Every structure is written in C-alpha cells, then in structure tokens.
Fold these 2 entries.
Entry 1:
Amino acid sequence: MTTGHDRPARSLLSVDDLGTDGILRILDLADHMAEVNRRPNPKVPALRGKTVCSVFFEDSTRTRLSFETAAKRLSADTMTFSVSQSSLNKGESLRDTIDTISAMGVDAFVIRHASSGTPWQVDHWTTASVINAGDGWHSHPTQGLLDAYTVRTSLGRTGGLEGLRIAIVGDIKHSRVARSTSTAFRLLGADVTLVAPRTLLPPVVEEPTTEDLDGIIEDLDVLYMLRMQNERMNEALVPSLREYTSRFGLTPERAARLAPQTLVMHPGPINRGVEIAVDPGELPGAVITQQVTNGIAVRMAVLFDLLGSGEPGTEGTSR
Amino acid sequence: MSLLISGATVVDPTGTRSVDVRIDGPTIVAVDAELTPVDDDRVIDATGRVLSPGFVDLHVHLREPGREEAETIETGSRAAALGGFTAVVAMPNTDPAQDCVEVVEFVRRQAERAGLCHVAPSGSITIGRRGEQLTPFGELSAAGVRLFTDDGNGVQDPLLMRRAYEYAAGLDAGGGRSVTLAQHCEVERLTAGAVMHEGECCSRLGLPGWPSLAEELMVHRDIELVRLTGARAHFLHLSTARSVELVRAAKAEGLAITAEATPHHISLTDERLASFDALYKVNPPLRTSADIVAVRDGLADGTIDAIATDHAPHAAETKEQPLDQAPPGMLGLETALGVSLAHLDMPLADVVAALSWKPAAIAGLDERHGRPIAVGEPANVTVFDPEVAWEVVPARLASRSHNTPYVGMPLRGRVTHTVYEGALVVDDGRATR
C-alpha cells in the first residue's frame, strides 16, 4: 500500500478536492485502520508528536469524539476548543482565535462551523492542516468518506461503488451530509437519486431527482435517510412533519417493501418517528451503527493521510 | 493661478471635439481650438486624454457619522476625487441615519471641510431607516436634499411606500424641481439569511441564496406605484436581467423612472464566491454572466441611466468574519472608470454620460455638475487617459478600507486630474489635499 506520497494537499476541505483516486486512497487506508481498531490494543504510534486541535463553533459531540478518538488511536495529542469556553464570547474574532491556537503549534485543525466556507477562510490563515468537520449546508467530507466506506465494506467490495443504485432522501437543501455523501457516491461510480419535495432541494442539482419514494424503493442497493429538522416546518418548507413522514419517511409499509439486502443508512442523530418511523434494529439492511464505527477508521485514515508518513502501524504495533 | 488644459479631447453633453480649456477660479473662462499659455497659467498637457465634466456618483457610503473606522467623509471624498468624481450622493445608512436636517448638515459641513468634492447627502425615506414613519421630506428638501432613499434596505411596506411616492410627487423642492425617491429593491422576506445569488453556484457551495425574484418583485411594485402616483422613482443598483426588462418596458410607457447599475454588476459573477472570500459578498449579490450581459445591454441602450458605484468600505476585520456574518459591500470610487471602460462595449461618450451628466440630472446636481465644457460654466471637470491599462493596489487606495474586489484584474482607463470648483484636487493621479 502506498500512503506517504502523492498527497495532493495538506488540508481536507471537501470530497471534491480528493477526486475519485483520493477517495479510494482514503478508503484503502481506512481498511488498514479498521484492522488496527480490531486489535486488543487499538493504538499505533503513527502520529506521535503531532497535535490535533478540534475547534467546534457548533456543537457536535458525536463528530468531535469520533475525531478525537481517531487522533488518539494514532497517538496524536489532542486539544479541544469549543465556543462555550472560548474568547469569541469576549469579542475575539475567528481570525484571532485561529492565529492564537496556531501560535501554540498545532499540526491540524478540525473545524466545525455553522457558516459555509469557514474552513476555507481558516485554511488561508494557518500553515497547519485544516480538516473540515462540517461547514454550514456545504460540506462534511469525512461523513461522505465514512458513508462510502460503509457501503463498500457492507457489500464486500474492494474498489468503487460502480452501478449501485442509491437514493438519498430528505432535506437535501440544508444538508452538508447530502452534498458530501452524494458526491463521494457519484465519484465512486454509483447512480444517486435525490428524493425530496422541491422545497427541500437546492435551486439547481446535478443528480436525478424524484418525489416518488414508493416508485423506487424496491430497486435500491442503498436507502440513505437524512435527518429532518423540526424547525423546517416553521419555514413553510413542508406542511407538517406528519405529511413529511407519510411521503418521505421510512414507515413500516415502506420497510416491508425494501429488499432484504438494501442497506439503510442515516448520518445520525435520528429523528425517530419522522424520517425513520420503524425500529432500525428490525431492519435487516440497517448499517447505521456501522457508520459510527467506521467513522473512527476513516478519520484515522484522513489524519494519517494529511499528517503521517511512511506505512501506518508498521512501527511499534501490538503485534 | 489659472489652469490651462491643452490638447485634450473634450467629451461633454454637446458632443466630442478637441479644444484647449482655461479655468480661472471656479469657472471655465476660455475654450478655444488653441489657447496660448499666459504667465499665470499652470499648463496641463492632456494630449491623448479626455476632458469631461466631473463624474457624479449617485451611490456612495461614506460611513460618517458612525463607522469612521471604515471610511470618513474626508477619505471617501479623496477616493471620489481620485476616481474623477466631483460630486457624490451620500447614502443615509449612517449612525445616526440621515433622517433629519441636523445630520444632513453635519455631513455637508464635513464635506466642505475636506473640500475634495461635493457631497450631496441623501435623506432617508423613513425615520431611522426602520420602514415605519416618513422623514420630513419638506424640511429636508428645503435644506437641499434632492434624493431620498432607505438604501441598505428597501421600504418593505407597500402602503408606506405608496404614501411616500404620493407625498413626494406633490412636493416642490424649489425652482419647480421635484425630489426623487430611490429604491433599494429587495423583498426581505425572500432574502432572509442570504449570502449570494440563488442559482447553480449557491447550490454547490451550500450558501443561502438571494433570488433574483426578490429584486424584481419590488421593481415591479414600484413601477406600479409610480404609475399610480405620478412620482419620480430611481432604482438603485439593478442586478438582474428581468429587472432591466421591467425598467425598459416602464420607460417605453413614459413613466418617470431612472435606474443605475454598479461596476461590479457588469464585471464579476457569483462564481467569485467559490473562494468563500467575503470580499465578494455584496447586496444585491453578484449574479450570473447572463445578468451581466443584460445589465451591460441596459446601459448601452439607455434603459439604465447611470453607473453608480455603491462604494461600500468595510474594515478588514469585518470582512474576515464567516460569510453569513460579514457585511455586504465593496469599494468602487477609485476603480469605477477603469472597470467601466474595461467591461463595457459602448461609445466612450455614452460611458461618460452614464458617469457624469445623466446621474447629475437624477441627483438634481446639474446646476454645477455634468455641465458642458463652455465659457462661464463651473470648473468641475475630469481629465483621464481612456486607454491606459492598470491594476489596483489596495494599500495605495485613498479609502480607509481596502475591500476592492479587483486585485489582479486588468482595468482600462484612469483619471489623471480632477478639478473641483476650480481647485486642482487631483494632479497627475495624486490627491493634492
């Protein structure tokens, strides 16, 4: 496996930046990391001496823990900067905050921000690596990568996702997950259909779209359900959550029509009774917990890809 | 000391010709095919250059009072002079707003102290620009205000806007002149949280979109209100193809409507936001190349009367905020001519008309600005090289802020001299005061 060379960038801001080859490189690396994670002592010294700082301007305990776990399993030191304990409340600018942390000598920032584009701004201000952990409605590259990885491993594939029929259902417009995950799937060769009412689609989309979930549900390899946020109702984007569930939710009736091998995915946290109105544990194809588990391996792969050198885990492993 | 400008091609409302011009005090005292220098003359050799009436900008934000860290009336006036402007209309979104005679008088006094160009304060349409209660149009017009606008925001309430047009239509601002209401066309219910043009690019970037419809609905509403009330309306910074069509049709009907477009809406598309640099965030937003073509066509056929900069200085730290928090706006005064000549395929005289005498008439400034180059006329003139290629260097701008979007873009045409009320305020490209 080649890892240490032909890295195109020091930062990971979007899935598009990686391209098909870059995605495959990360997924192959993630296979190796998953193997590390299965060991009794799931830790390698690959990033010893490196410091990774999570800077979360928007709460996301799940994503932050996943990144920090990934960094620790590679023996990196981790720091956390969260807004509630920060000086942003004292009027310090984003730029000053980044400059201050940079001055402490970090190797990578893991950035989450409610405004699209903020990781790009940060990337201009620092020489450290910047990993986008979700910006606004725009991009969440490690989610796209872990979703692609989950499909690949769940279906026992080794290369891309050529020919798979995938539906992404829900609030595409406001979803960074939809943007990154559909891009990752498409770059790997899958046929992605977006399922949403017109109000929940961006003004222009490249993928085929439909409002008829029932018309396609029996012919899917992957059914990807997005989280539906309660506040969307107040913006007149859907008449009611009940109507949303009846048209776009995974109801017991729809679950019964799914082929048993169809993977059911969700980025979490699930809005139970809205987008998924059945017990996911009852769905034979549900891989929602695998997505969480795989998130660690994929984020280890990303961190190693940006910060590491040589072969991961060949030095000082537990074997 | 008198000033002899020799060898220039004069472009003014009466046509184009080659003449020498002598200025003494605040007045043009001689115009002839060839004037011989006399002892007292300071001679400016303007061979190969254009001499025109000074430019008039219908739309600048000078930030004083209230946001002096971004611009002051003095620094903004200096930028205006360097851009060839001898008169600018100051937008009312100051703090406090230009909604009463006291604030308007303050702006005027600060401009006179700077002495670099004429600053005509606009008055806001509503108190505090809150869209609730009309300002005293009568008092303000008696104090010299000719243009009223809530710019920064459109007047959202159609009833209040109807009353504003009705009240303004009957108001005699002196000498049989009327006042002009200038609308920032934006239905805010359609643009809440918007950062950029709604279209393909915003879909890709995950940024909230500002739909063209939000501008066009208000253009349409105000055209109908003008039809109803017989008032005069001016549309600020039109940015969409459909807006241009609506105004073209309204003008064909003979309605008293004028319109302006900015240099950035004829030169930059929404693709600029792919950098996520808030430098390119502006309101109305940068739009598509099809809109750019339509706005240029509107300028070329006179549907859009004036080029106005919407000069909007912002301190660097405010533009380094996340895109949804960064304020909209970009500099325009010092680059207006260079962008216009680089991006408009129009006869030079038409570009100058859109920069000078047409906006002067809209702003009610045509007694001293945008005048013919003729004996007895006020000495408010500009000399520029229409061919020189140059690039903007932010640190060298006279504006206190440096938020120009034109770094690295070739511009064509640059002002070398500006004469304001007889004073050489820009000499060889440098401000003299």
Note: Residues 55-362 of chain B form a domain with the TIM Barrel fold (CATH 3.20.20.140).
Entry 2:
Amino acid sequence: MNASAGKTYFGRRYALSASHRLHTDALSDEENRAAFGKCNNPHGHGHNYVLEVLAGGAVNPETGMVIDMVALDAVVRTKVIERFDRRNLNLDPYFKNRVPTTENLTKAVFAMLDGSISPAELAQVRVEETENNFFEYSGD
Amino acid sequence: MIYLTRRATFSASHFYWNDSWTAEKNEHVFGRCSNRNGHGHNYTLEVTVAGEPDPVTGFVVDLKWLKDVMERKVLAAYDHRHLNLEVPEFAATKMIPTTENIAISAWKRLEPVVASAGGAQLSRVRVYETPEIFAEYRGGL
C-alpha cells in the first residue's frame, strides 16, 4: 500500500447556472454603469459557471483515495449547488451587502465548504464564469 | 519563477480493489469501480515545471525534451495498459490505481529525471481521469 508523506490533491468540477447583476448601492446609477458596464443591466444576466473544488490531504492507504468522491459530491451539492443553481445570486443573503462578482462568489463557496470535507482539507476553490475567465481562492 | 506545463494523454484500464477486504466491502466502498473485469479512461497528464527562463534561449525547459521525458517515463509504461496488472508500481504492491495514486506514481517517475537535468524543478503533476475528475501531487511536504 502506498504511504506517501506528501499532500495529494483531488479535484472535481461541477456545473452551476445562475443569474446576477453587478451593482452597488454605494455608487450612483451612472457610476455603476461606468464601473460594471453591461454587467450592470438592471434585469441581470446569467452564466453557466463551472465550480472546481480542490481537496488536499493524505492518501488513505486502504482506499488509495484522498476523499470519497461520493461524499464530496454530497457536501458540494447540499451546501453550494442547491443554494445557487438556477437562482438569482443578488437575492441570496450572502450577497445582501456584497456585489455578486465571481470573485465574491468564489470566496462565498470557499467559506461554505471550508471545514466540511473531512478527512481532506479544502485547498482551493476555482469558479469559471465563462470559458475565458476564472477566479481562484485558497483562503489566504 | 515561471511555471511551464505540458499536457499529454494516455488510455488505460483499471479497477479498484483492496485484497484485505471482503468482496461486499469492496463493492460498497468502490461501487462500480470494483468490477474485477476493469474499465478504462482517457487520462490527461499535466506536468508543470518551475524555473527561470534561460537568458539565451528564453526557455524554462525545452518542451520537446519534456515531451520526450513524459513519453519515456510515463506514457510508455501506462498507455494502453491495464494499470492493476501490467504497471509495476501497482501490480507488484497491489496499490490501488486511483487517480491520486497515479498522480503520485507519475511524479515519482518524472521527478528524478527533471531534477538531474538541472535548471527547472518539477512543480506539480495533475492527472485527469475524466474532464471532471483530477488529482494533483506537488511532492513531499
């Protein structure tokens, strides 16, 4: 059986579709339009987000696994996917006083999963907003 | 420090089984992956090396050299093979060829070659089992 001292990372990708509008009450309508451009459209718009969860830990010598993928799926589904998928992010309590940029969504997802994927540790959350832009947060 | 990544693909079969467990426990823990007839994947291997660009060539490493190392050290052993039965690190020890263990094993195959070449260091090895599932190893802590 393998007993490696180093940390190994298990990654998993999930799809998530949601709408948002980038807008803050701290700015005037004009300033919002200048800051957020077409993302400030009053009616919002949507994305097919891809959420990538990276779990780090030791490889269990009995199973060869860092984490049981089925267990990880269940945590991500109940804590994140069911909360945000097919929703308007602006209406979620987390975004009551935060602009639902993908930066803030990434940090929100990290906070929701951190400490919940034992025996592994949450190493990184990456959220891809489109094929050409993505955001990563490692908790520091 | 610049990080340079090269990608390659290989196809292999495997199954998940722990000999010290009962058949029932293996089936319970590993589900469909415990089918002893095996199943296969198109894996993607991503190798990242880190270093400073050479002042003359502008290269961290020669990508053609890295491709050759990946082919000789990993693909030659893994591609179109049954990992449990034909690849020594799994066959000899009955180590289960999970994506995690494949990433660690590929690292062990590559690291001495990259280190002895001088210049760049092996930074990380990532193995995708499917587009949605991957494991990554960055060496010992």
Note: The two ends of chain B are 20 Å apart (CA to CA).
